[in-house]
């Protein structure tokens, strides 16, 4: 049974032959905040068109790792990253890579819904506009509609596109943020506990959305909820105290983990 | 079930022992504190009320001015006895206009024209400014020469004070500035409708004058306006740019800490020190003219910069980090993040800080004294390079005058200054309300 679901997952990744496509690769990644080391030699591959869940107790470094993937750590004073992180084989910390371009390719959705205090329309069209992806009103309308449809929000807000995005409910705001992220057509979407500020019904909607987005995007999601990781992800990586404990197919991690720490965590003995 | 009821009953019966958790003392402390707060607020309001009442009760009179309206005979024998005004325009400029005014009033009062002393005293009821008033009237209407036309002239400052009741008439005549005869004349003129109090436009438009009745804050308002303009044009962009750089771009290290401490210190530097700096740098070193609003504006800019920088940095700090993360997360550059998202959200705070800084600069006196803005300026300054005064400096100068009419005008000018400040502060509040966004 487990083997079957794992096989199905592998198939969904639609790898050529049996080899899955690796979208992002982290090799010996260490992160320091000043003198304090937060991540120790993490080696983790992110597969294309799959949802990778990062789990682990608070302060284990999963959010830190997520933020290294689009260099959001650059904005933190004293933060230093060593090791290699590649996107399609290119080192994203290389001088030749521009951080603005990287973030256009690797989008991010944050823990707390953070729409701009502008209209829904403006929220979505902002990214494409600064990147020069839209040239006229028709293209803008188009990108707003497409992004909202993909984020499953269009029907709820189509009559009030020009009302402030901050007037939506929490779940709608988070889907607006997802729509905003996909409006710039990223290749990878990073989600940092996207449902932790939402109620169960809104959470279910966002989870469904993540499930659908997987077909077009590579998704990395940090979550505190083991059930959520099990529901939405195909691959799971377990962090503990800054170390990557174990990484593998979600079904295997949750049923037959190799490491006793993973076993303890998923059965609720700590964390 | 029964157990529970029984045990509960037992507890009740034993009259529950209540712990002493000092409730009475705690509530008493709270009541005391509330009382202190209310007393402090009451005291503050009381002083504010006293201040306003003093200023308004003393100064409202300054907005009225005693005027004399009499038929003046523009006799050719006084203005142009040799009938040479066609060739020599100076004749009209040099003519003895006060005599015309005096004669008109002598006639109106029915005083004997041969009583030299009385005639001289009657002439004293009219302000010396009648010379200018009548001259400009004749220059504008040369055809009135030889005719008798009713003209409105300003009354002397003493007459004005007497009419407004500022001079104590119970004091013995030899110890007061107005004689009984003059008081009688004033009463007669008022009774005849020749003398009356009218709205005083002069206080708003006139420049400096040694005669209280013609002194006004016109030059001071223009000087203050130029300075506010210079402060706004210089301090706002420089202050906002400096704050954005320090807050968003500069690395946080020992140097930026030092700069921050120094900006905060600068805000606390006594303003007179800025005046000395302006004197040394702008006037002595750079050779800019004294008494010019340009120099005043530059000095006030230096004074206002710390206020604007501190307010702007506080406003930038108050923008939630999630907005910055959102902008960076979809690939905005730092510059785009600041100018598209952070700055618009910080704008109300920046505006408020700027207006409060401007209001502070508008009321500043000490530095302006040092750069020579305590000047007797009669003519409107055409450019910021011309000599001018400022509203608070004008108040300072009038406060030094002894005449009763100047005391009144001092309070009048304070009312004008307070009105400007009130308008600016209300504008700050309205702008903040209007642009404030919730997130």
Describe the protein's topology.
The complex is a heterodimer of chains A (271) and B (439).
Chain A: H1 2-12, E1 22-33, E2 36-47, E3 51-55, H2 62-68, E4 79-87, E5 90-91, H3 99-105, E6 106-109, H4 120-130, H5 137-150, H6 154-157, H7 170-183, E7 188-192, H8 200-213, E8 218-222, H9 226-232, E9 235-240, E10 243-249, H10 250-255, H11 260-266
Parallel strand pairs in A: 3-8, 3-9, 6-7, 7-8
Antiparallel strand pairs in A: 1-2, 1-4, 4-5, 9-10
Helix pairs in contact in A: 4-5, 4-7, 5-7, 7-8
Chain B: H1 2-13, H2 23-59, E1 64-73, H3 76-79, H4 90-94, H5 97-109, H6 116-124, H7 130-140, E2 148-154, H8 157-163, H9 180-191, E3 195-199, H10 202-205, H11 218-249, H12 254-267, H13 271-285, H14 293-317, H15 321-329, H16 334-362, H17 366-370, H18 391-399, H19 404-435
Antiparallel strand pairs in B: 1-2, 1-3
Helix pairs in contact in B: 2-19, 5-6, 11-14, 11-16, 11-18, 12-14, 13-14, 14-16, 15-16, 16-19, 18-19
Order of helices and strands of chain B: HHEHHHHHEHHEHHHHHHHHHH
Terminal Cα separation of chain A, in Å?
A: 28 Å
Query: What profile does the largest beta sheet of chain A have?
Result: 6 strands, mixed
Q: Quick check: average pLDDT of chain A?
A: 88
Q: Which value, in Å, is the CA radius of gyration of chain A?
A: 18 Å
CATH top level of the domain at 2-106 and 188-266 in chain A is Alpha Beta
End-to-end CA span of chain B: 53 Å
* Helix fraction of chain A by DSSP (H/I, runs of at least 4): 25-40%
Question: For this structure, what is the CATH homologous superfamily of the largest domain in chain B?
Answer: MetI-like
Percentage of residues in strands of chain B: 5-15%
């Amino acid at each position: 049974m487990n083997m079957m679901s794992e096989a199905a997952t592998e198939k969904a990744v639609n790898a050529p032959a049996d080899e899955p496509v690796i979208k992002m690769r982290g090799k010996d990644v260490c992160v320091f905040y000043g003198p304090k080391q937060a991540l120790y030699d993490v080696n983790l591959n992110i597969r294309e068109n799959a949802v990778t869940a990062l789990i682990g107790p608070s302060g284990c470094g999963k959010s830190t790792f997520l933020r290294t993937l689009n260099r959001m750590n650059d904005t933190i004073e004293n933060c230093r990253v060593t090791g290699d992180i590649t996107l399609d084989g290119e080192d994203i910390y290389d001088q030749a890579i521009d951080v603005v371009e990287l973030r256009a390719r690797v989008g991010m959705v944050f823990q707390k819904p953070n729409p701009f205090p502008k209209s829904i329309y403006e929220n979505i069209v902002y990214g494409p506009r600064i990147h020069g992806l839209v040239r006229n009103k028709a293209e803008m309308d188009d990108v707003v509609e497409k992004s909202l449809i993909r984020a499953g929000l269009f029907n709820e807000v189509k009559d009030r596109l020009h009302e402030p995005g901050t007037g939506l409910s929490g779940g709608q705001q988070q889907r607006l943020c997802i729509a905003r992220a996909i409006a710039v057509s990223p290749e990878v979407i990073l989600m940092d506990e996207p449902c932790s500020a939402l109620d169960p019904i809104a959470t279910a909607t966002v989870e469904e959305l993540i499930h659908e987005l997987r077909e077009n995007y590579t998704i990395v999601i940090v979550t505190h909820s083991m059930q959520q990781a099990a529901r939405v992800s195909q691959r799971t990586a377990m962090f503990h105290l800054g170390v990557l404990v174990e990484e593998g197919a979600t079904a295997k991690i949750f049923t037959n983990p190799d490491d006793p720490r993973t076993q303890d965590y998923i059965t609720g003995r700590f964390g | 079930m029964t157990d529970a009821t029984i045990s509960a009953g037992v507890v009740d019966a034993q009259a529950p022992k209540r712990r002493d958790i000092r409730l009475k003392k705690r509530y008493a402390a709270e009541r005391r504190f509330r009382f202190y707060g209310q007393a402090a607020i009451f005291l503050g309001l009381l002083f504010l009320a006293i201040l306003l009442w003093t200023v308004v009760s003393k100064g409202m009179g300054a907005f009225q001015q005693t005027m004399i309206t009499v038929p003046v005979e523009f006799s050719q024998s006084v203005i142009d006895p040799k009938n040479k005004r066609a060739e020599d325009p100076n004749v009209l400029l040099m003519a003895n206009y006060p005599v015309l005014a005096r004669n008109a009033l002598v006639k109106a009062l029915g005083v004997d024209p041969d009583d030299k002393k009385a005639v001289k005293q009657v002439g004293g009821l009219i302000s010396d400014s009648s010379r200018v008033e009548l001259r400009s009237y004749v220059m504008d209407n040369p055809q009135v020469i030889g005719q008798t036309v009713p003209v409105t002239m300003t009354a002397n400052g003493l007459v004005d004070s007497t009419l407004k009741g500022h001079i104590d008439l119970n004091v013995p005549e030899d110890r007061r500035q107005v004689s009984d005869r003059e008081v009688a004349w004033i009463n007669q003129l008022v009774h005849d409708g020749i003398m009356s109090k009218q709205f005083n436009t002069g206080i708003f438009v006139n420049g400096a004058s040694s005669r209280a009745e013609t002194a006004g804050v016109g030059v001071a308002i223009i000087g203050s306006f130029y300075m506010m303009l210079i402060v706004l044009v210089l301090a706002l962009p420089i202050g906002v740019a400096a704050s954005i750089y320090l807050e968003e771009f500069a690395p946080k290290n020992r140097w930026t800490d030092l700069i921050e401490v120094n900006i905060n210190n600068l805000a606390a530097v006594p303003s007179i020190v800025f005046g000395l700096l302006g004197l040394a740098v702008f006037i002595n070193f750079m050779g800019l003219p004294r008494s010019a609003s340009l120099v005043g504006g530059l000095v006030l800019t230096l004074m206002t910069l710390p206020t604007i920088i501190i307010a702007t940095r506080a406003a930038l700090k108050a923008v939630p980090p999630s907005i910055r993360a959102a902008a960076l997360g979809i690939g905005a550059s730092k510059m785009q993040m600041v100018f598209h998202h952070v700055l618009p959200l910080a704008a109300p705070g920046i505006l408020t800080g700027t207006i409060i800084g401007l209001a502070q600069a508008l009321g500043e006196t000490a530095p302006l004294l040092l750069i020579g803005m305590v000047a007797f300026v009669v003519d409107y300054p055409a450019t910021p390079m011309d000599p001018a005064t400022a509203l608070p400096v004008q108040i300072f100068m009038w406060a030094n005058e002894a005449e009763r009419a100047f005391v009144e005008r001092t309070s009048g000018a304070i009312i004008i200054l307070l009105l400007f400040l009130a308008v600016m502060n209300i504008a700050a509040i309205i702008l903040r309300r209007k642009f404030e966004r919730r997130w």
